[in-house]
Amino acid sequence: MSTVTAPSTSPPRRASAEDLARKTERADRLRTWGWRLAGYLFFLGLWEFSSGRLMDENLLPGPSAVFATFADLWATGEVPSAFATTLTRIGIGFFLAFVVGVLVGMLMQNRWLNGFFRDAVTIGITTPGLIWALITAIIFGNREAGPLLAIVLTTFAVITVNVSEGIKSLPKDLIDMAKSFGVGVLKRNRHIVLPHLAPFLFTGVRFGFSIAWKVTVLTEVFSSSSGIGFEMRTATQLFRLPEFLTWILAFYILALFLEKVVLEVIERRFFSWRTSLKA
Amino acid sequence: MLFRALKGPLSGRLTFPLVCLGVWLLTIELVASIWPFAVDVLPTPWQVAGFMWDEITGNTLAPHNVYQTFWISLQRLGAGMLIAMVVGGVVGLAMGLSKSVNAFFNDWVVAILAMPNLAWALFCSLAFGFGDTGPIIAVVLTGVPYVIINVREGVRNAPSDLYDMARAFGVPRERAIRHVLIPSLMPFLFAAGRYAFALGWKGLVVAEVFGGQDGAGWTIKFWYDAHRAYGVIGYALLFVIFALFFEKFLFDKLSRRIFRWRPEASVAEEAFDQPPAVTTEPQRTPQHG
């Protein structure tokens, strides 16, 4: 409230100082963007320049070649179906991993179960996805269950760690107060426990998703006959680097979009009550 | 007393492998009763244990025994990490010192960070052929963004008041660097090395699967191609042991040694992509002796 009355004491000087600050800020932002653009130009240019000059064109196709290949692939109509297959797999596998991760995280509040699952979580975090991909591929062959199991095994631990951290830091005093004021179990969970756990869950989901999509593509390379990973394997076996780069880059951009834009927007919407509190 | 011990976390911890073993044997029984022909795909624990014993004693069908195999991979990992630390150190230093350089590189560092190591592995195997070059470059590419980000954070968090004091007291530049900059950068460099090691290892293994002629990744693929499920699982367990040895044993010891001078070792470890450092056990007190 006091900030509203402050400018009226010395309006001209303050306005000019604000103007100056805004101007330097704008110049700063302009310069940053300029450098950023220069970075893009430099790296894309380097990539384009090296293809055909520093390295064989077949070994390192430039960005323009990748774009041209993407247009060709799009014209054949393979792209949407391969994307849909992989995204479905990621969706199902990640959902299962989320359920398992949250369950284990909740169970780990018990001391005995904490000891029980501790090594499972450590192994889940440190083991490379490649190992799960190979084991599930050799056991399940090209059945659907293989990739799903691999996703669950690589991803659940990240979610578990976040959930159990969240539960550990639950506001006990608030819960006690709610209890003593006779607030019901459902209402208590809805208004105290869930809002407190939400940020931890979101962190787990974001980390987990970034692992899950990579593992999915990896398992598809070994044991699938459809999806992005399969297309990548086919392209590498035929030594078609432009096609390979196009597949991986296209999917990479989609995954980054989901990870950085979609999940972030959902998170921001979910926490809109927080920003309104701040403002 | 005994009852309390039975309810504690240690007994749970000991139960876990037993339950795993039980589930494993039960699965084999179940699968074998439904599809009898699927038995060779599901190895028994004894087969895997026998395989691991053979590997550890050096009696193997693969071209190199475990120790040679992991040594080859470690050499590649070391070479890749060295390059990643040097390149990442220089770029990270520049990015921490200058806003413009930061804007220039930032998006590309993030882009390389988010790239799956499968992409690097396949690309390096195609572009550089079979041998050492491909895997080493894959390690550099997976490790370098973590080094850059950590070094940048270290430079940004450098204690500027200590510099001011050093300047005010006329401390020569070399001594200021030696006694102020390097100690303040150390924890970040250490975290960077740890990340580069853990993730570079994962990247290296994948790269060796596709573009190696030997090494750990190549050998697990060797057993996979021979369709020996017990070989794949046994080798996977060797991988787990190897990773745990380095993570828990070597790095913990090393970090305690390097940061002995500090009252508490709170190494800045931020989870950028995966939080490998997060464990569920309470923090041990780092100072002892």
Automatic annotation (TrEMBL), chain A:
One Gene Ontology cellular component annotation held by this UniProt entry: plasma membrane
Domain of life according to the entry: Bacteria
Membrane topology according to the record: Multi-pass membrane protein
Subcellular locations according to the entry: Cell membrane
InterPro entries: MetI-like (IPR000515), MetI-like_sf (IPR035906)
Major site of localization recorded for this protein: membrane
Region (Disordered): 1-21
Annotated ranges, domain ABC transmembrane type-1: 83-267
Residue intervals passing through the bilayer: 33-50, 90-108, 120-141, 147-171, 192-213, 244-266
Keyword list, A-Z: Cell membrane, Membrane, Transmembrane, Transmembrane helix, Transport
GO biological process: one example: transmembrane transport
Family, as annotated: Belongs to the binding-protein-dependent transport system permease family.
Protein name as it appears in the record: Nitrate ABC transporter permease
Protein's organism: Acrocarpospora macrocephala
Higher taxonomy: Bacteria, Bacillati, Actinomycetota, Actinomycetes, Streptosporangiales
UniProtKB/TrEMBL annotation, chain B:
Signal peptide, first to last residue: none
GO cellular component terms given for this protein: plasma membrane
InterPro entries found in the cross-reference section: MetI-like (IPR000515), MetI-like_sf (IPR035906)
Residue span(s) of domain ABC transmembrane type-1: 70-250
Keywords annotated in UniProt: Cell membrane, Membrane, Transmembrane, Transmembrane helix, Transport
Membrane found in the keyword field: yes
Topology within the bilayer: Multi-pass membrane protein
UniProt-annotated location(s): Cell membrane
Transmembrane segments: 12-38, 77-97, 109-130, 136-155, 176-197, 232-251
GO terms classed as biological process: transmembrane transport
Keyword Cell cycle included in the entry's annotation: no
Gene3D superfamilies: MetI-like
Pfam families listed in its UniProt record: BPD_transp_1
Matching SUPFAM superfamilies: MetI-like
Protein family membership: Belongs to the binding-protein-dependent transport system permease family.
Name of the featured protein: ABC transmembrane type-1 domain-containing protein
Native species: Acrocarpospora macrocephala
